[in-house]
Every structure is written in structure tokens, then in C-alpha cells.
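Q: what sequence does this backbone want?
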């Protein structure tokens, strides 16, 4: 018998390594859009996070103005989101509809546990919790979060456009890579005894997505090939020094792989300071450039 409040994981729709900021914004916007279906109002339509961000900006053709993204423009702002969604709040008030919105978000919670020695320990852990709040509060939270979220999605979209542009016109001696840490993988034996459950060994997983020219590629007939290089390591510290070692393995792979000689590597990653934006990481780039 399965309890009625028990829900099996849908592994086909599972998502990992989700940006916390994106997830919270997504949950709030989806909860708001679901409520819109119950209210007949011509002025209020479901909007995505990107569309709400555009409402808070001045009109643009390709990219928003820098002052709009930095929120220093006097002609636009997140108040536009509140003004656009305010008829929705009024409609709920007039129709006597349940004004509570339900959504989930991840939060850090303090916990106390007892270790093997019987001592009480305090810790903090991330937990997915259900939130219940009014429509007006959700609209206010979305508007406040959009102050910095607009710059966040602009950088993500701009990076994707730059990647697509580079791949479309990638020179013969250039290569594009996207690298980042994945979740550590736990090594589980096929037949495990009961006592071996806790002291399980983990390894670091560092996948690298590579876009380069194939061996038959020419200037007249470019042939782009895409491949993955996945590095496994027992070094569990995720820092700039480990990235330097993994980058050297990438260079060895590129030198030993068939295809045009690579002289320039365009590296894309996330904005983790301790791994890719630290001062050591920039010094490592200089050291690696001499090995290409």
C-alpha cells in the first residue's frame, strides 16, 4: 500500500543543477499564470519570466540598454510589472476567489541531529518547501526579484547568442568548449554488504562540451563536429587548481585528436568565482595558452 501523500519520482522529467534564482522565479510566475485562467480579464494575460522582464524595460530591438539592465533608467522599472498585474489582484478581490497562491521554493533550514557519539549537532540544509501567499505578495516579490533577475537572464541569453554566433562562423583553427562541474558521483558496488552503505567513495565529474572542425573540414566546406569529454577524478575539491588540471587534459585531448590544429579556444563556463573567476584561474589561462 502506498500512502496517499506519497508521490513517486518522475525520473524522465527530473532536473538537476537548477539555478536557485531561476527556479524560484519560475515557480512564482507559473503559480500566477495558473490563477489567471480562473479570472476572465482581457488586460491580464499569462506571461513568462522573460516577458515580465521585458515589461520592466524600455523597448529594444536586439539588446536592452545598459542603463535599463542596471536599473538606472528613469523611463522604465519593475513598477511596470506591478502596474500590469494589478488588475489581476483587483479581479480576485471583486470575484471573492481564493486569493492564495501555492508554489514551491528551496530554502535553507536549520536542523539539529544526534551523531554517532550521542552529541547534538546543528547544521543547515537546503529543503524544498511549499509556500502559500496572496496574489499581491507574489506580484510584489516578482517585481523585487526582477531588479537583479533581468541582468541575470540577459547575461544568460547573451552568452547563448555569442556561442551560437561563434559556432556559425568558427574559424578552422578555433575551438569552442563549455565546461562546468557536475554533481559528484557515488561509486556503488554491484553487491553491497550492509556495513558498506555509509563509507561510499565519490568521484568528481567534470564534463566538457567541445565544438570544433572535423578532419575533413576546409575553409570552403566547413564540417563542424561536436563531442563530449568527461573527466573523472578522485580529487573532490572543486577549485581553480582542479580546473587547471582538467583544462590541461582537454589540451592533450585536442592535440591527440584528428582534425585541424587548434590555436584558439573559446571557453564558456558559469560564474563560479572560486573555479573560473578567481585570480588563480586567470593566471592558469596564461599558463594554458602557451600549451595550445
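A:
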Amino acid at each position: 500500500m502506498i500512502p496517499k501523500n506519497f508521490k513517486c519520482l518522475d525520473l524522465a522529467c527530473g532536473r538537476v543543477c537548477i539555478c536557485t534564482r531561476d527556479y524560484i522565479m519560475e515557480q512564482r510566475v507559473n503559480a500566477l499564470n495558473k490563477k489567471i485562467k480562473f479570472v476572465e480579464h482581457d488586460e491580464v494575460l499569462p506571461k513568462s519570466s522573460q516577458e515580465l522582464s521585458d515589461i520592466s524595460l524600455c523597448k529594444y530591438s536586439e539588446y536592452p540598454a545598459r542603463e535599463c539592465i542596471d536599473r538606472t533608467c528613469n523611463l522604465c522599472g519593475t513598477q511596470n510589472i506591478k502596474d500590469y498585474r494589478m488588475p489581476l489582484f483587483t479581479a480576485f478581490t471583486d470575484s471573492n476567489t481564493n486569493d492564495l497562491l501555492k508554489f514551491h521554493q528551496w530554502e535553507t533550514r536549520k536542523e539539529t541531529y544526534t551523531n554517532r557519539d550521542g552529541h547534538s549537532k546543528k547544521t543547515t540544509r537546503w529543503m524544498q518547501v511549499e509556500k502559500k501567499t496572496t496574489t499581491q505578495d507574489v506580484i510584489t516579490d516578482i517585481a523585487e526579484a526582477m531588479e537583479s533577475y533581468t541582468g541575470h537572464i540577459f547575461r544568460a541569453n547573451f552568452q547563448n547568442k555569442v556561442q551560437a554566433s561563434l559556432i556559425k562562423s568558427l574559424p578552422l583553427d578555433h575551438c569552442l568548449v563549455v565546461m562546468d562541474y557536475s554533481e559528484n558521483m557515488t561509486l556503488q558496488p554491484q553487491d553491497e554488504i550492509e556495513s558498506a552503505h555509509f563509507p561510499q567513495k565519490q568521484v568528481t565529474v567534470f564534463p566538457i562540451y567541445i565544438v570544433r572542425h572535423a578532419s575533413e573540414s576546409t575553409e570552403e566546406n566547413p564540417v563542424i563536429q561536436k563531442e563530449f569529454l568527461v573527466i573523472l577524478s578522485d580529487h573532490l575539491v572543486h577549485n581553480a587548481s582542479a580546473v587547471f588540471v582538467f583544462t590541461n587534459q582537454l589540451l592533450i585531448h585536442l592535440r591527440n585528436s584528428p582534425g585541424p590544429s587548434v590555436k584558439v579556444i573559446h571557453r564558456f563556463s558559469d560564474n563560479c568565482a572560486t573555479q573560473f573567476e578567481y585570480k588563480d584561474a586567470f593566471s592558469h589561462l596564461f599558463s594554458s595558452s602557451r600549451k595550445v
